[in-house]
Amino acid sequence: MILPWITSYPVPASDITAEGGKFSFVPGDNAKPGFDVQDGKLVPRPLQGGKLVLDPGDVRAVRLERPVVVDPQGYVIDVGVRPRDRWLEVAMWCLVLLVVGWNVASLVAGWRARRA
């Protein structure tokens, strides 16, 4: 059985260097460097000076992630969502209110029983 080995390396863009047409960076603590094929066998990919060196052909995708920042004084608008898409939330809130009402009723009944 042959399984493909695809690994993501979340690294700040400033930590990636390019030398000799290859990318190098220090992988995270739990990132595994993967394997290379040598003489028909898989061998663990070695780190060079504590850095992982990759050929551009080994890279399948690069993604730039930026944190989402919302203005605390602003609003978040959920585009494309209609009220009928939120029926389950309304049903869950009604169920919560029912349980709260039941608890309040039992407290009132218990309080009345103690006074009597």
What does this structure look like?
With 116 residues, the chain is of the alpha+beta class. Helices cover 25% and strands 16% of the residues. The chain contains one helix and five strands; from the N terminus they run E-E-E-E-E-H. It has one helix at residues 87-115, and strands spanning 17-19, 22-25, 35-38, 41-44, 52-54. It has a three-stranded antiparallel beta sheet with strand order 1-2-5, with no helix packed on it. The chain has a two-stranded antiparallel sheet with strand order 3-4. It is elongated, with a radius of gyration of 29 Å.
Strand segment tally: 5
Biggest sheet architecture: 3 strands, antiparallel
What is the strand content?
15-25%
Give the averaged pLDDT, no decimals: 86
- Determine the number of helices (DSSP H or I, runs of at least 4 residues): 1
> Which shape, going by the Cα principal axes?
elongated
CA radius of gyration is 29 Å
Give the terminus-to-terminus CA distance.
Answer: 77 Å
- Physical arrangement of strands within the biggest beta sheet: 1-2-5
| Element pattern in H and E | EEEEEH
What are the key terms here?
alpha+beta; elongated; single chain; three-stranded antiparallel beta sheet
Overview in brief:
With 116 residues, the chain is of the alpha+beta class. It contains 1 helix and 5 strands.
Blueprint of the fold:
Elements: E1 17-19, E2 22-25, E3 35-38, E4 41-44, E5 52-54, H1 87-115
Antiparallel strand pairs: 1-2, 2-5, 3-4
